[in-house]
Amino acid sequence: MIQKAVRMQIYPGYAAEYQKRHDELWPEMQQMLKDHGAISYRIFLDPETNYLFGFLEIEDEERWSETATTAINQKWWDFMADIMETNPDNSPVAQDLVKVFEL
């Protein structure tokens, strides 16, 4: 199992909408994540800074990297682009985080 952590950011005032969209995550998006080796995926929000911290457990890095090219993932990026910082292709601006401690 591989653990990954990322930091992203939503725009101010969009925390509730971000939560709503994830509460209603499309079944085909959930299935794609599982099909590409996601064992678990959690996202936490710092409401003071609007930073999101994602924590993933995946089976295989190469298989996981293929998520970016799936049609459903690109559709999701387009759907989320109005409420968070994104790159020109609408992928979230994400910074990988480095694990410094584990108990």
What labels would you give this structure?
alpha+beta; four-stranded antiparallel beta sheet; 4 helices; L-rhamnose mutarotase activity; rhamnose metabolism; isomerase; cytoplasm; carbohydrate metabolism
Question: Poorly predicted ranges (pLDDT <50, ≥5 residues)?
Answer: none
Assess the beta-strand content as a share of residues. Answer: 25-35%
**Helix vs. strand class:** alpha+beta
Radius of gyration: 14 Å
CATH topology: Alpha-Beta Plaits
Cα distance spanning the termini = 16 Å
Tally of contiguous helical segments: 4
Supply the number of structural domains: 1
The helix/strand series, from N terminus to C terminus, equals EHHEEHHE
Task: Indicate the CATH architecture.
Answer: 2-Layer Sandwich
Q: What is the class in the CATH system?
A: Alpha Beta
EC number: 5.1.3.32
Enzyme class: isomerase
Protein name: L-rhamnose mutarotase
Keywords: Carbohydrate metabolism, Cytoplasm, Isomerase, Rhamnose metabolism
Structural description of this entry:
- The protein is of the alpha+beta class and 103 residues long.
- It has a single domain, classed as Alpha-Beta Plaits (2-Layer Sandwich).
- 32% of the residues lie in helices and 26% in strands.
- It is built from four helices and four strands.
- Strands 2-3-1-4 form a four-stranded antiparallel β-sheet.
- It is globular.
- It starts with a strand and ends in a 7-residue tail after the last strand.
- The model has no long low-confidence stretch (mean pLDDT 97).
